[in-house]
């Protein structure tokens, strides 16, 4: 795990969640036809790219070195889940033309910091 990247991902995920909640309050669906939703989509894509970089780096590190205290199945489960939750939430948000599509995206974005925190906890126990 790259600690600086984990912190940056947490901050970006919280920003995206706040942005999504603003859209919920403003009763705006995620349509990719307006600047606010396009900007949010760009932030979500940036977040997903960062999560993929973190996942690849963590996978390479775990597979190439001995990590005696690491619970690998749990770690990889969280790693896969944190990478998968944003695309699922984004597609759901795009499909739901009510304001609750943005609510789904907010929940997906809020789940990212929780899973990153858990990944950091699992990573810290191995060493």
Characterization of this structure:
This protein is mainly alpha-helical and 127 residues long. The protein has one domain (3-124). It has 4 helices and no strands. α2 (35-64) packs antiparallel against α3 (72-95).
How would you state the average pLDDT, rounded?
A: 93
Low-confidence stretches: none
Number of domains: 1
Q: How far is the N terminus from the C terminus?
A: 12 Å
The tally of helices reads 4
Strand content: under 5%
State the main characteristics.
127 residues; mainly alpha; 4 helices
Question: Brief overview, please?
Answer:
With 127 residues, the chain is an all-alpha fold. The protein contains 4 helices and no strands.
Topology, pairings included?
Blueprint: H1 3-25, H2 35-64, H3 72-95, H4 100-124
Helix pairs in contact: 1-2, 1-4, 2-3, 3-4
């Amino acid at each position: 795990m790259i600690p600086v990247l984990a912190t940056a991902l947490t901050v970006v995920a919280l920003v995206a969640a706040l942005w999504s909640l603003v859209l919920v309050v403003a009763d705006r669906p995620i349509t990719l036809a307006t600047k606010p939703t396009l900007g949010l989509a760009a932030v979500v894509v940036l977040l997903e790219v960062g999560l993929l970089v973190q996942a690849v780096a963590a996978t390479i590190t775990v597979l190439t070195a001995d990590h005696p205290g690491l619970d690998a199945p749990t770690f990889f489960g969280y790693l896969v889940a944190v990478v998968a939750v944003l695309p699922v939430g984004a597609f759901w948000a795009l499909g739901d033309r009510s304001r609750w599509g943005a609510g789904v995206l907010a929940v997906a974005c809020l789940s990212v910091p929780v899973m990153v925190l858990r990944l950091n906890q699992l990573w810290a126990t191995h060493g």
